[in-house]
Design a protein that fits this description.
The complex is a heterodimer of chains A (about 325) and B (about 325). Chain A contains eleven helices and 14 strands. Chain A is of the alpha/beta class and about 325 residues long. Chain A folds into two domains: about 220 residues, Rossmann fold; about 90 residues, Alpha-Beta Plaits, CATH 3.30.70. Chain A has a six-stranded mixed sheet with strand order 6-7-8-3-9-10, sandwiched between helices. A four-stranded antiparallel sheet of chain A has the order 2-1-4-5, covered by helices on one side. Chain B has one domain. Chain B is globular. In chain B, about 35% of the residues are buried. Classes of the chains: A alpha/beta (about 325), B mainly alpha (about 325). At the A-B interface, helix 2, strand 6 and helix 3 of A face helix 2 and helix 8 of B.
Chain lengths: ~325, ~325
């Protein structure tokens, strides 16, 4: 039984004529790591700002922990930790002072604030940098400090907006591991927004693909590919013996489609460069070859291609 | 109850604390402070140097010689109040011009506003922090001048003089916070700190240098001939003076003049008729206060108007990171 922790209902945000978020419906369940995957400018950040009450939706509602973010942002913000993209700290203060300030803003006493800040800084691997000014921190260190900053208020949900942008690959790996570990230790829900597919794939239980303000698909990676591959998850390329073709270029594909219709899972047949391309929902290569041989056609060539998430990503995000 | 408050400081005061410590540590505040202390000492020195001459004549003003420390000058350096009129705005602008946009540019604004605080806390806290620093500064300066005066002259100020000086300090704080609020308004309006600083400074320059020139031009153009009736002459003078009073520096000048020079009986033109029969004695404190009340109200009103505009712009704005 899952319990929703973030609920977006018909959420819309318009800037003049431009619609940044378009009737978005989304639910993030308690305890999961939800990945919001989308290219830059898809409206990810705008949706997140609306979850925190940092901007007002044009229409629709946002609930975080069952509280309306637009009307009660303060209550929401006691329960949500938000790590903005490219987080900033007061450069002339030390990492510890920055964290203590956040803790105090959350109503902690000075003593407790220092205790918690020190504990969290060593947890995220910044024990050495405790008294160093944040102006001298590297990008990766800043992001880790940001994570500590988010966790200091004991949140129920943390929202990470492109947290890995600008960190080197090793740093990204450490950061992602840290997120998963901290999630398990603190038993929190995570909303992870990113344009990087591989990172999302690595840490997220569930993913929502977000393009031009709309949620295209949502689910775990497997069901996601099922939803998205309406055009077929597999592509089978066939090379048929010239003699066995009916020899009128344009109708070849239709002819073959008719021929293969009886096989379950065939979705579309195209022809290009003398090769037939059969899109199918699951791996039916053996059935196709059997069918062709049964029909007495010469099979020269058969190649099976599988679409990964990469392919979907490219197809949807890069206009492919 | 008190214990719990002192242990868990309200987030508002947490921000105020941080802002105060930020301000007093910042180079630009130290530079402004140095500038103001230096000019204050300079004008105090010239005032004291020339003091024996200033109080020699036996006129009723003598009873208020302490106030002369603030207004008297031998001509080499302008008096203390002139310096405050001139440098106060610069102090206010320097304290406020980057209060919001620098947080935005550093990326700290969205992080701070993601904490459970009301959005206006940030704005109010920055304002209050600046006011606290300004109050300490101005009271310290006034008391310093008093102290030096005491050392060199050897006669303690009367309670009325002391009160006048305290009220003068309050008016100075209001005057500087007027400019402070204008600067905060620009810091919300303009994304670049440099733009908002320039906007503030150009308004300050306009009022402190060019405005009086423009008013003089208007006055020249509108001046009635020498043969008009006294009434018309007075009306004209009033008109010009009212235009001058759009300048906040002029308001401050009017206010401080009547506070620190009790012999000033009116800020507008007086006819000989009105003066006839008046006893040449200084005004009591209450009357001086009545005289400066419109000026003080105008300054406070301006401050509030700027604050309201800032508030309106900031409260419903979208807070993006960087």
């Amino acid at each position: 039984m899952s319990e929703p922790i973030i609920q977006l209902i018909d959420l819309t945000k318009k800037y003049d004529e431009f619609t940044a978020v378009d009737h978005l419906n989304l639910t993030v369940d308690k305890g999961e790591i939800f990945g919001l995957l989308g290219p830059n400018g898809a409206g990810k950040s705008t949706s997140i700002l609306m979850m925190l009450g940092l901007t007002e939706p044009s229409s629709g509602e946002v609930y975080v922990c069952g509280i309306n973010s637009t009307t009660n942002p303060i209550e929401v913000k006691t329960k949500v930790g938000y790590l903005p993209e490219d987080v900033g700290f007061y450069d002339d203060r030390t990492g510890l002072e920055n964290l203590v300030y956040t803790a105090k803003l959350n109503g902690f006493s000075s003593k407790l604030a220092y205790e918690k800040a020190k504990e969290l800084m060593s947890r995220v691997g910044l024990a050495e940098q405790i008294n160093k000014k944040t102006g001298k921190y590297s990008k990766g260190m800043r992001q880790r400090l940001g994570l500590a900053d988010v966790l200091i208020k004991d949140p129920e949900v943390i929202i990470l907006d492109e947290p890995t942008s600008g960190i080197d690959p090793k740093g990204v790996q450490e950061f992602l591991n840290l997120i998963v570990e901290l999630r398990n230790e603190h038993r929190i829900s995570v909303l992870f927004s990113s344009h990087n597919l591989h990172q999302v794939q690595q840490v997220c239980n569930r993913v929502g693909i977000f393009v031009e303000g709309k949620l295209l698909a949502e689910g775990d990676i497997e069901s996601l590919s099922r939803q998205l591959f309406t055009h077929g998850m597999y592509l089978i390329e066939l090379g048929l013996n010239e003699k066995s073709l009916p020899h009128n270029e344009t109708d070849d594909a239709i002819w073959l489609e008719k021929l293969l219709k009886p096989i379950e899972g065939v979705q579309k047949v195209m022809k290009s460069d003398g090769l037939f391309q059969v899109e199918c929902s699951h791996d039916i290569a053996p059935a196709i070859s059997k069918r062709i041989v049964e029909q007495g056609l010469g099979l020269n060539f058969l190649n099976r291609k599988e679409y990964g998430l990469d392919a979907i990503y490219n197809r949807y995000f890069e206009g492919g | 109850m008190f214990n719990s408050i002192s242990q868990n400081l309200n987030p508002f005061w947490v921000i105020v604390n941080k802002e105060i410590s930020d301000t007093v540590r910042s180079w630009r505040f130290l530079i402004m402070l140095g500038l103001i202390v230096l000019t204050c000492m300079g004008s105090l020195y010239t005032a004291l140097d020339d003091f024996s001459k200033a109080i020699k004549t036996r006129d009723p003003e003598d009873t208020f010689f302490f106030l002369k420390l603030f207004t008297h000058t031998d001509g080499t350096l302008p008096s203390f109040i002139v310096f405050i009129t001139f440098l106060g705005p610069l102090l206010g602008i320097s304290m406020g011009f980057d209060s919001i946009n620098s947080e935005q540019n550093k990326g700290t604004l969205s992080r701070i506003l993601a904490q459970p605080i009301y959005r206006d806390f940030l704005l109010n806290a920055k304002f209050i922090a600046a006011i606290v620093v300004l109050s300490v500064l101005f009271f310290a300066l006034s008391l310093l001048v008093l102290g030096f005066g005491l050392l060199f002259v050897g006669i303690p100020p009367t309670p009325e003089e002391f009160l006048r000086i305290v009220i003068f300090s309050v008016v100075s704080i209001v005057y500087v916070s007027f400019w402070l609020n204008l600067a905060i308004l620009f810091s919300v309006k303009f994304k670049q700190a440099a733009t908002s600083a320039l906007a503030g400074i150009s308004i300050w320059l306009f009022f402190s240098i060019f405005y009086s020139m423009i008013v003089n031009l208007i006055a020249k153009g509108l001046a009635p001939s020498v043969f008009v009736s006294e009434r018309q002459m007075v009306a004209f003078q009033r008109f010009i003076q009212n235009i001058m009073r759009i300048n906040p520096g002029q308001l401050f000048n009017d206010a401080t003049t009547s506070l620190l020079m009790p012999t000033v009986r009116s800020l507008g033109p007086l006819t000989t008729e009105q003066m006839s029969g008046a006893i040449p004695s200084p005004l009591p404190l209450g009357q001086s206060l009545m005289l400066v009340w419109p000026q003080a109200t105008a300054l406070i009103a301006g401050t509030i108007v700027f604050f309201a505009i800032t508030y309106q712009m900031f409260m419903r704005r979208e807070i993006r990171s960087r």
